[in-house]
Queue: 3 jobs
Job 1
Amino acid sequence: MNKIDYLRISLIDRCNFRCHYCVPEGTKLDYILQQQLLSYEELLTLLKEVFIPLGFTKFRLTGGEPLLRPGIIDFVREVAALPQCSDLAMTTNGFLLDKLASPLFDAGLRRINISLDSLNPEIFDKMIGNGGKSRWQQTWQGIQTAYEVGFNPLKLNVVILRGLNDSEILDLAALTIERNWHVRFIEFMPIGNNKLFDECAWIPSAELRQNISQKFGLIESSIKGNGPADVFKIPGAKGTLGFISQMSECFCDKCNRIRLSADGWLRPCLLNETGEINLKDALRNGVDCDRLKEQVRNLLLLKEEINFKERDMGTDGVYGRTMSQIGG
Ligand code: SAM
Ligand code: SF4
C-alpha cells in the first residue's frame, strides 16, 4: 500500500458560488451548524496528536469555500508553523483572494489552487450559477493578486463540460505559455450533478490533450507534483498543463490521501464511506487520542481501488452529498 501522508481538510461546507457540476441548481443543502463544525482548536489537536504522529505531513485546506470561514488566517499561521508540516496548500474559488492573498501568504501559506472554469465572464457566471452581478472580474483579480504576492507557481483547476466551456480549452491552456501557471484539467465526476453526467457533459482527458496538442503541440513535463495529475507542457511554455483523469484512468494505486469533512467525518476515499469515523464526536465524547490514532490506522487499511466510472453514486451525489459538502 502507498504511504498515506496527505490529509485534505474541509473547513466549511458553505460556498459563495453554486457551480453547476458541484451544487446543481435546485439542490437544497442542509448546512452544518456552526457548533457542529470541527473547531480550529479541535483540528489542531487532531493534527498534533493523531495525524502527525501517524506520519501525515501534507495538508490541504478546502471546502465549500475555505475563505468564508472566519479566523482562517490565524488557523493557517498555526498549521504552517507546525514543524512536521512539510506542505500546506489551499483550494479556493478565488473570489475573496484579492483581499486575502497577502495575509494568507504572510501567515505561511505557499501553495494555492484556484478554480477557474472560464475566461469569458458570461460563461463563467453561467457555470458558477450566479444570476446576479458578474463575479468573473473579482475572481480574475484575486488570481492576479495571488500571483503578485508570491504564490508561484500558481495552479488553476478547470472542469470542462461539453457545451458549456469546451470552447475555451485552448484559451485556458494558452494561459501557461507566458505565465508560470499550472493549469490542471479535472475530469468531471458524477458527484453532485448526475443529470449533467447523463447528458454526456463529461470529456475525457485524452480528448482535451488531443485538442491542445493539435494546436500547440504537447510534451511530457519533467515537473511532477505529488498528486495524481499527468503533467505536460506546450513546447517553450513557462507553465505546465496537468490532467487529472480519475474517470478514464484509475489512479487509486498512486493515492496518498484521505479526507476530513468540516463536521469531522474522516473518509478513506472520495467515493468510499466504508468505515467512515467521526473524529469530532469522538473528541467531544472524551475518546483519547491514542484510541483515535488506532481508529485512523484501521481506516487507512480500508483504502481500496475504486472504479469511479462504474461506482454507483446514488442519484443525488455520492450517497446524497455534493463535493462542497464532502470537501473537494
Ligand atoms: N470552493 C473551492 C473551489 O472551488 O476551488 C474548494 C472546494 S471545490 C469542491 C474543490 C474542487 O472540486 C474544485 O476545483 C472544483 O472544480 C472541483 N469539483 C467540484 N465538483 C466536481 C465534480 N463534480 N467533478 C470534478 N471536480 C469537481
Ligand atoms: Fe464551486 Fe467550489 Fe463552491 Fe463547489 S465548493 S460550488 S466547486 S466554488
Job 2
Amino acid sequence: MDYLPIFLKVEDRKCLVAGGGKVATRKVTLLMRAGARITIVSPQLCDELRALLEQGAMTHVAREFQDEDLHDCVLVIAATDAKAVNRRISELANAQRIPVNAVDSPDLCSFIMPSMIDRSPVQIAVSTGGASPVLARLLRSRLESFIPAAYGRLAQLVDDYRDRVKQRFTVPDQRRYFWENILQGRVAELLFAGHEEKARIALEEAIDDTDAHYNDPGEVYLVGAGPGDPDLITFRALRLMQQADVVVYDRLVSEPVLDMVRRDAEIIYAGKARDQHTLSQETINQLLVRLAKEGKRVLRLKGGDPFIFGRGGEEIETLAGEGIPFQVVPGITAASGCASYAGIPLTHRDYAQSCIFVTGHLKDGSVDLDWERLAKPAQTIVFYMGLHSIPAIGRELVAHGLPETTPVALVQQGTTCDQRVYIETLGSMQDLAERETLKPPTIIIVGEVVSLHEKLSWFGMKNKQAAAD
Ligand code: SAH
C-alpha cells in the first residue's frame, strides 16, 4: 500500500487553492461540499469559478501566490499553470507539515485525491495510487451503478437510531446481528423504495420487538471457493464470506480469495496438504460443531466445490447429527475451472460423450481404480490428486487398451496467474516427473478433447502475444 486512505475533516477550516482555472474549480467544488473555508489565490478566475465565488463563503485574493498565504491552512491545492509555482507551494507546505496536492505532479503531492462516490454520509473513495486515474474512474462508475442512491439515507437512518440501539443491545455481537438484519432486510428495502416514514416505523418496531437477550444460534456455511481465480466465486459465497465471524479454510483456498473475507473475522487454517493434515478430519468436524454452538457464523471455506473430493459431506453429516443449521454453496470444481482456463472442453460432440472425475490418490502406490471402466473410447477422464500417480496412470490406461498416443494435459495451479499446462501423451507422461518439477495442485485430463487445447487456449495468451511482439 503506497498511500494510507483517510477521510479528512475540513469543515470550517482554511483550505487554500492556488490557481483559478478548470482544475482549481473542480477542487473548489469538492472542498465546498465538505464545508471548507476556502481561499483562492489567483490573479484571474475562470467564469465557472467566479460563479462559485458568488454563491459560496469563499475569499478570493486577486494576485499571485505569496508565502504567507499558507498561514493557518489545514490543506493546500497547488493548481496554478506554472510548475515552478506549484513546486514552491509544495515545498513550503511540506516544510510546514500541511497536506498538499499539486495537480498532475505526483512527486509534489503529500496526498492524492481519490475518485469518489458520494452517498453522504456514505463516502466511497477509489484510488490506484496515482497509477491510473482512468481505471479509478472506471471502477467508480461500476460501483456507482450498483450502490443505490438511497444508501446515504440508510446510513442517516442508522445514525439517528444508533444510541437507542446501543442501549437496547448491550452485547456488541447482538448489536451487529441486529444491524445486519436491518440493513439487509425489510427496513432497507422500504427505504430504497422511497418509503422513508414506513422504514422508520419498521425500524422502531424491530428495536422494540427483538428480544434483547435473544442468543442467535450459530450456523455453518460450507462454501466452495473455486479453483483459485477470485473472480470465479459466486455472489452467495461472497456475501457469506463477508458475514462470517470465523473462517476455517484449507490449503487449496487461494490468497486473493481469502483476502475477500471480512477483515475482522477470526481465521483458522485447517491444512490438508497431502500427508500432513494440519488438523485431522475429526478435529475439523468437532471444531465446526464447537464454534457453531458458541453462536458463531462459521464459514468453512474449501477449494473448488465442497462436494467434489472435498469431504464436505462428512463435515455436514456431523453438523446434521448435532442439529446445527448449515448451508452449502457450490463452487467451480478444479476440473471445470482448469479445463476452461486451459481451453479444453471436457465433452465435445466429436471427441467425448462422457466425462469422469476420479481421485488419483492411490493408497500405498497400489492401484485400486477400476481401470477397465476408465479406459473407454470417447470418454474424458479427470484425475484429482494424481500428482504422485502419474506413471501408474499412464501405464495402466495403456495396459487396459487406450492408445499410447492419447493426449494428456496436466494443469498446474489452474486459473491462477501461475497456471502452467503440460501437454503429453499416455506414453510420454510416464517419465514426466523426472523431466519436470511439478507442483501441486495439479489436475490431469486424459482424452482426445485435450487436442483442442492448441486451438482453444486463451488464458494468459494475450501476455504471451505481447511478449512475442
Ligand atoms: N474440492 C476440490 C478438490 C479437492 S481435491 C474441487 O472441487 O476442486 C484436491 C485436488 O484438486 C488437487 O490435488 C488437484 O488435483 C485439484 N485442484 C484443485 N485446485 C486446483 C488448481 N487450481 N489447479 C489444478 N488442480 C487443482
Job 3
Amino acid sequence: MKALEDKIRAQGIVKAGNVLKVDCFLNHQLDVSLFREMGKEWRRLFADRPINKILTIEASGIAIACLAAEAFGDCPVVFAKKAQSVNVDGDIYSVKIESFTHKRVYDVFVSQKYLGPGDHVLIIDDFLANGMALEGLTEIVRMSGATLEGIGVAIEKAYQGGGDMIRSKGIKVESLARIASMNDETGEIEFL
Ligand code: 5GP
C-alpha cells in the first residue's frame, strides 16, 4: 500500500536492535485517516471471506482493528489482553507470547464469551516480525473453535521470517507494507 510505504519512508525511524519506530502515526500518535484507508485495503484483499469478527492484541492493534472493522460492516473487535499471569481456570482462552520489543513473556487471554465456533475471524496487528504474537492469536482462534479467515498486518519485516512461517501453515497473510531490509546507520528502508 503506497500511502503506508510513503508514510514509513517519510516518518519512520530505524533504531538499533532492528526496531522501526513509527510512534508518530501508528504506535503513539495515530493517523486515523490512514487507518481508514488501511481498513478499506484489507476489506478489498479479504473480500471473498465471510468475516464477522476482528481479533487483535493490545495496545497498538486496537486502533487499526477498529478502523478495519468499519470497513467490514462494523463487525465487533475483540482484543487479546496481556497480563503478568492469568488464572487459567476462568472462562478464557490463554496463551503465552514472547514480546519482540519488550523481550519478555506475557500471558495473553480472550474471554470465551467473545470468541466461539460461529465466528469467522480476521486477525489484525500492527507489526509482523518473528511471528510470535500472531502465532499466539491464531492459537486462541483454534482453541475457540472459530474459523480463521486470515491475518492483516500493517508492517511486515519480511526478512525476519515470521510471515513465511505463518504462510507455510496455509494461512492467508496480507501485509500492507513489507520491509525487505532496513539500516539503522543510514536510516534506509527498502520495501519488497
Ligand atoms: P513478533 O511477535 O512478530 O516477533 O512481533 C510482533 C510484535 O512486536 C508487534 O505486535 C509489535 O508490537 C512488536 N514489534 C516487532 N517489531 C517491531 C518494530 O520494528 N517496531 C515496532 N514499533 N514494534 C515492533
